[in-house]
């Protein structure tokens, strides 16, 4: 998904940081984008369909799943899936719907 013009500088900086990212950096970036998506949702009358919210939500979910894929065991995978679910659910509530 191409970032909207208002987020292109943020997207370029994010990609620069991700080029060197380890799994803890993936977690931090996913957290930051989720926070930005939730903040953007609070600024919109209807977040779902807003290009900035949509990009922040989709990119953060990609990072959450990349971080989740770093799990080293079933227990670790389950624990990470709970963090991913919480982020996904929070963004779905902010968008005004169920989860994707």
Please provide a written account of the structure.
α2 (23-43) packs antiparallel against α3 (51-68) and α3 (51-68) packs antiparallel against α4. 72% of the residues lie in helices and 0% in strands. The mean pLDDT is 92. The chain is built from 4 helices and no strands. It has one domain. It is an all-alpha fold.
H-E order: HHHH
- Secondary-structure class: mainly alpha
| Major sheet size, sense and barrel closure | none
Unreliable segments (pLDDT under 50, ≥5 consecutive)?
none
Q: How many angstroms does the end-to-end distance come to?
A: 16 Å
Helix count, DSSP H or I runs of 4 or more residues? 4
Oligomer: single chain
Mean pLDDT, to the nearest integer, reads 92
User: Shape, please?
Assistant: flat
Number of extended strands: 0
> Any idea what the radius of gyration is?
14 Å
Share of helical residues? over 70%
Count the domains.
1
* Beta-strand percent range: under 5%
